């Protein structure tokens, strides 16, 4: 195999591993650090938790990872509360459907909230973004 083919093959393998890593919750370590959205199995940010560093197209491929009630349960359709561990100028948005679609609920950075009744145990995807502190409709 010539050097160019070796280089291309190695580059493709590296890119594939980076894309696989960034598209899942593999970065979750069970510690809700700054710039993460953290979902909990129980209300009042209790029970098992998963921490997300980025947008999640679906919660149905992820599992609550820390000890406590709900550990190893699928996150999709099982979260009851959220800690949006972002600065106050960011918003965490939780969606009813995968793919960031359907009805959604917005939470300002720095807030610990119970998901509203219609979304509790009905979460499917999430994202966070710079909002300038805006949390109402149209943000």
Automatic annotation (TrEMBL):
Q: Which residues form the signal peptide?
A: 1-27
Superkingdom of this protein's organism: Bacteria
Q: Which UniProt keywords apply?
A: Signal
The protein, known as? Peptidase inhibitor family I36
Organism phylogeny: Bacteria, Bacillati, Actinomycetota, Actinomycetes, Kitasatosporales
């Amino acid at each position: 195999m010539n050097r160019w083919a070796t280089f291309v093959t190695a580059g493709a393998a590296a890119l594939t591993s980076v894309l696989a890593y960034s598209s899942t919750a593999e970065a979750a370590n069970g510690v809700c650090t700054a710039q993460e959205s953290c979902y909990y199995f129980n209300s009042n940010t209790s029970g098992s938790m998963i921490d997300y560093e980025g947008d999640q197209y679906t919660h149905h491929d992820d599992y609550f990872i820390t000890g406590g009630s709900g550990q190893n349960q699928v996150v999709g359709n099982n979260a009851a509360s959220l800690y949006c561990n972002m600065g106050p100028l960011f918003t965490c948005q939780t969606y009813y459907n995968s793919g960031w679609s359907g009805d959604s609920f917005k939470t300002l950075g720095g807030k610990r909230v119970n998901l509203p009744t219609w979304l509790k145990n009905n979460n499917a995807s999430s994202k966070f973004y710079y909002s300038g502190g805006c949390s109402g409709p149209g943000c």
